[in-house]
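Intended use. Records like the one below are meant for learning the mapping from a protein sequence to its folded structure. Do not use them to infer anything beyond what is encoded.
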Amino acid sequence: MKTISTAEFEKVVLNGGKVVVDFYSTECAPCEALAPKFDSCAEFYGNDISFVKIFRQENRELATQLDVKSSPTVLFFDNGKQVGPSLTGGIKRSELTSNLDSLISPQQVALIKSKIKKTEFYYDTVILGGGPAGLAAAIYLGQAKVNTVLIDRALPGGQVSTTHQVSNYPGFVEPVNGYMLSHYMSEQAKKAGVQYKSAVDITSVNLENKSIIIDEIETIHFKYLILATGASPRPLNIPGEKEFKGHGISYCATCDAKYFQDKEVIIIGGGNSAIEEADFISKFASKITIVHQFDKLQANKEAQEKAFANPKINFLFHTEPLAFIQEGDKMIVNIENIISKTTTTISADGIFVFVGMQPNLDMFTNQFAQDDWGYLKVSDEMETSLPDIYSVGDINSKKFRQITTAVADGTIAAIAISRKLN
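Structure written out for the chain above:
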């Protein structure tokens, strides 16, 4: 592993044969998540590939030349030419090794894989998921000196990190950016001593043996497990949705609204998410059409008032989407009026779908008691139907799902576990 500056780039990278370069920054959570994976890969691939780090903040001109816009960004070079895709954000070990494997022969890859040693770690508590519920549990467990690790497929933050503003979280007089609120929670948990294993692939979870394998090589043993995997946007499951997801259809306003400056947008849904995000999207889009199956919105009154007063927002009530079609740069929606049963089409530059959520339980198959909608049933102390397995946040069966209710769940589970351990 070698850290270089712009002056050494040509000699070390362009004339260095097979090289992987990590552009990193300080005070960067994704960079911190990548560092141990990058170091581990350097240990095993280092004889065949050179591993180089460049401090992006002090080498901005070089970063700009290489189209490096964020930290971390990992680039791969073979005899002076950049090859393969660049990696950025919450980079997983599997993404790194896939690109590294493509730089060398299959024989070299096989030899390296045979030398990789599997490791085992032991914790009192594992938290699976890093949204507000998981982070609250982490803060309480860390402060109680419980040996705890938080594991997340992505970077800590959950849905809150992709919410543009949060106006109803206690303690903030003015609305706070969602990513900053989750950042504060994450840093508080770190300060309390909780360890993180983020942006990892979860290979398997064995509830009976109380173990989790991540990235195929690390086995995490636990006494107690807190499930905090949250929920994901519920799909409509209509023709065209899968085909155009990420290519005309979005589920995240914070992520994608900026791409619709002075363009027209269709929003499917009428709950809090749909109406609150419509207000944010209107800062960019020239026109918004909200398609809603009922005759009234289900969003909170404040959000409704803002939406009805916004001249950019129009409404189609008693209407359902039937299919999505792409024609050139336009997205077409086949819609049906529920009352008259008449069908027609509307078009826009992009579509946002906000029709509720579904629990993230893909790692588990009918192992827990669940309600009719697939959410987990828990006790007053957040314990599931399986002993020593707790569940918190949006995957729980409950009437209301808010940041505050998720944080409350995490608090309760952490205190219950702390008392059992003591």
